[in-house]
Here is the input.
Amino acid sequence: MLRKWRQWAVEALVIGTIVVGVQLWQARGLPEGPAPALAGTLLDGRQASLAGTVAAAGGKPVLVAFWAIWCSICKAEAGNLDDLSSDTPFLGVAMQSGSDGDVKRYLADRHHRFPTINDPDGRLAATWKVAGVPTHFIVDGHGNIRFRVVGYASEWGLRARLWWTKTFS
Here is the structure.
Protein backbone atom coordinates (compact mmCIF):
# COMPACT_ATOMS: atom_id res chain seq x y z
CA MET A 1 0.00 0.00 0.00
CA LEU A 2 2.85 2.40 0.86
CA ARG A 3 4.37 1.74 -2.54
CA LYS A 4 1.12 2.70 -4.26
CA TRP A 5 0.86 5.95 -2.26
CA ARG A 6 4.47 6.79 -3.11
CA GLN A 7 3.74 6.23 -6.82
CA TRP A 8 0.65 8.50 -6.62
CA ALA A 9 2.68 11.18 -4.84
CA VAL A 10 5.38 11.08 -7.52
CA GLU A 11 2.76 11.26 -10.29
CA ALA A 12 1.01 14.19 -8.57
CA LEU A 13 4.36 15.98 -8.21
CA VAL A 14 5.16 15.45 -11.90
CA ILE A 15 1.72 16.69 -13.01
CA GLY A 16 1.93 19.69 -10.66
CA THR A 17 5.38 20.56 -11.97
CA ILE A 18 4.13 20.42 -15.55
CA VAL A 19 1.11 22.63 -14.77
CA VAL A 20 3.23 25.24 -12.98
CA GLY A 21 5.80 25.15 -15.78
CA VAL A 22 3.16 25.72 -18.45
CA GLN A 23 1.65 28.61 -16.47
CA LEU A 24 5.04 30.26 -16.05
CA TRP A 25 5.79 29.81 -19.75
CA GLN A 26 2.43 31.36 -20.72
CA ALA A 27 3.03 34.38 -18.47
CA ARG A 28 6.50 35.12 -19.83
CA GLY A 29 6.80 38.64 -21.18
CA LEU A 30 3.83 39.96 -19.21
CA PRO A 31 4.54 42.95 -16.98
CA GLU A 32 5.83 42.48 -13.45
CA GLY A 33 6.30 45.00 -10.66
CA PRO A 34 4.47 48.32 -11.03
CA ALA A 35 1.31 47.84 -13.10
CA PRO A 36 1.06 49.79 -16.36
CA ALA A 37 -1.52 52.56 -16.56
CA LEU A 38 -5.05 51.41 -17.32
CA ALA A 39 -7.88 53.88 -17.83
CA GLY A 40 -10.98 54.23 -19.94
CA THR A 41 -14.72 54.48 -20.03
CA LEU A 42 -16.73 51.62 -18.61
CA LEU A 43 -19.61 50.38 -20.74
CA ASP A 44 -22.03 52.12 -18.35
CA GLY A 45 -20.39 55.47 -19.15
CA ARG A 46 -18.41 55.94 -15.93
CA GLN A 47 -14.71 56.70 -16.09
CA ALA A 48 -12.44 54.08 -14.54
CA SER A 49 -8.75 53.62 -13.96
CA LEU A 50 -6.60 51.07 -12.25
CA ALA A 51 -5.08 53.79 -10.06
CA GLY A 52 -8.57 54.90 -8.97
CA THR A 53 -9.69 51.32 -8.38
CA VAL A 54 -6.59 50.58 -6.30
CA ALA A 55 -7.12 53.77 -4.27
CA ALA A 56 -10.83 53.00 -3.71
CA ALA A 57 -10.01 49.42 -2.70
CA GLY A 58 -8.42 50.61 0.55
CA GLY A 59 -5.49 48.21 0.40
CA LYS A 60 -7.42 45.23 -0.98
CA PRO A 61 -5.96 43.65 -4.13
CA VAL A 62 -7.57 44.36 -7.51
CA LEU A 63 -8.32 41.77 -10.17
CA VAL A 64 -7.69 42.96 -13.74
CA ALA A 65 -9.12 40.59 -16.35
CA PHE A 66 -8.54 40.82 -20.10
CA TRP A 67 -11.15 38.82 -22.02
CA ALA A 68 -12.97 38.77 -25.37
CA ILE A 69 -16.47 37.96 -26.61
CA TRP A 70 -15.05 35.60 -29.26
CA CYS A 71 -13.02 33.58 -26.72
CA SER A 72 -14.54 30.23 -25.74
CA ILE A 73 -12.41 29.96 -22.60
CA CYS A 74 -13.56 33.45 -21.57
CA LYS A 75 -17.16 32.32 -21.98
CA ALA A 76 -16.48 29.34 -19.73
CA GLU A 77 -15.01 31.46 -16.94
CA ALA A 78 -17.32 34.49 -17.18
CA GLY A 79 -19.41 33.24 -14.25
CA ASN A 80 -16.26 33.20 -12.12
CA LEU A 81 -15.65 36.85 -13.01
CA ASP A 82 -19.25 37.73 -12.14
CA ASP A 83 -18.90 36.10 -8.73
CA LEU A 84 -15.53 37.72 -8.05
CA SER A 85 -16.62 41.18 -9.18
CA SER A 86 -19.48 41.14 -6.69
CA ASP A 87 -17.10 41.31 -3.70
CA THR A 88 -13.64 42.04 -5.12
CA PRO A 89 -12.24 45.25 -6.63
CA PHE A 90 -12.36 44.38 -10.32
CA LEU A 91 -11.59 45.91 -13.70
CA GLY A 92 -12.35 44.01 -16.90
CA VAL A 93 -11.06 44.80 -20.37
CA ALA A 94 -12.86 43.43 -23.45
CA MET A 95 -10.00 43.01 -25.93
CA GLN A 96 -10.72 43.35 -29.65
CA SER A 97 -14.38 42.46 -29.20
CA GLY A 98 -16.05 44.99 -31.49
CA SER A 99 -17.97 48.12 -30.66
CA ASP A 100 -19.22 49.17 -27.23
CA GLY A 101 -22.68 48.09 -28.39
CA ASP A 102 -21.40 44.62 -29.32
CA VAL A 103 -19.81 44.13 -25.90
CA LYS A 104 -22.85 45.56 -24.05
CA ARG A 105 -25.17 43.19 -25.92
CA TYR A 106 -22.91 40.23 -25.23
CA LEU A 107 -22.82 40.97 -21.49
CA ALA A 108 -26.56 41.70 -21.29
CA ASP A 109 -27.54 38.57 -23.25
CA ARG A 110 -25.56 36.43 -20.79
CA HIS A 111 -26.54 38.44 -17.68
CA HIS A 112 -22.93 39.29 -16.85
CA ARG A 113 -22.41 42.35 -14.71
CA PHE A 114 -18.66 42.75 -14.24
CA PRO A 115 -17.33 46.26 -14.96
CA THR A 116 -15.70 46.39 -18.37
CA ILE A 117 -13.71 48.83 -20.49
CA ASN A 118 -13.92 48.11 -24.20
CA ASP A 119 -10.55 47.89 -25.98
CA PRO A 120 -11.65 47.55 -29.63
CA ASP A 121 -8.22 48.09 -31.16
CA GLY A 122 -6.17 46.28 -28.50
CA ARG A 123 -4.21 49.34 -27.36
CA LEU A 124 -4.78 48.70 -23.66
CA ALA A 125 -3.90 45.04 -24.12
CA ALA A 126 -0.70 46.00 -25.94
CA THR A 127 0.29 48.31 -23.07
CA TRP A 128 -0.08 45.33 -20.74
CA LYS A 129 1.65 43.02 -23.29
CA VAL A 130 -1.41 40.78 -23.41
CA ALA A 131 -1.24 38.58 -26.50
CA GLY A 132 -4.04 36.14 -25.66
CA VAL A 133 -7.16 35.93 -23.57
CA PRO A 134 -8.15 35.33 -20.94
CA THR A 135 -5.30 36.94 -19.03
CA HIS A 136 -5.63 37.94 -15.38
CA PHE A 137 -3.52 40.14 -13.15
CA ILE A 138 -3.71 40.51 -9.37
CA VAL A 139 -2.56 44.01 -8.40
CA ASP A 140 -1.79 44.77 -4.76
CA GLY A 141 -2.79 47.87 -2.79
CA HIS A 142 0.41 49.62 -3.87
CA GLY A 143 -0.22 49.15 -7.60
CA ASN A 144 2.23 46.28 -8.08
CA ILE A 145 1.43 43.15 -10.06
CA ARG A 146 1.63 40.11 -7.78
CA PHE A 147 0.16 37.36 -9.97
CA ARG A 148 -0.29 36.80 -13.71
CA VAL A 149 -2.54 34.02 -14.98
CA VAL A 150 -3.04 33.18 -18.64
CA GLY A 151 -5.88 30.88 -19.63
CA TYR A 152 -8.83 29.59 -17.69
CA ALA A 153 -8.78 30.65 -14.05
CA SER A 154 -11.08 29.08 -11.50
CA GLU A 155 -12.83 31.27 -8.98
CA TRP A 156 -11.13 29.53 -6.07
CA GLY A 157 -7.73 29.84 -7.77
CA LEU A 158 -8.16 33.58 -8.23
CA ARG A 159 -9.56 33.95 -4.69
CA ALA A 160 -6.52 32.12 -3.32
CA ARG A 161 -4.20 34.50 -5.18
CA LEU A 162 -6.22 37.52 -3.98
CA TRP A 163 -6.02 36.23 -0.39
CA TRP A 164 -2.27 35.62 -0.70
CA THR A 165 -1.75 39.13 -2.06
CA LYS A 166 -3.82 40.74 0.69
CA THR A 167 -2.12 38.70 3.41
CA PHE A 168 1.49 38.95 2.29
CA SER A 169 1.79 42.36 0.60
Remarks:
- Strands lie at 33-34, 39-41, 47-49, 62-67, 90-95, 116-119, 135-139, 144-150.
- DSSP finds six helices and eight strands in the chain.
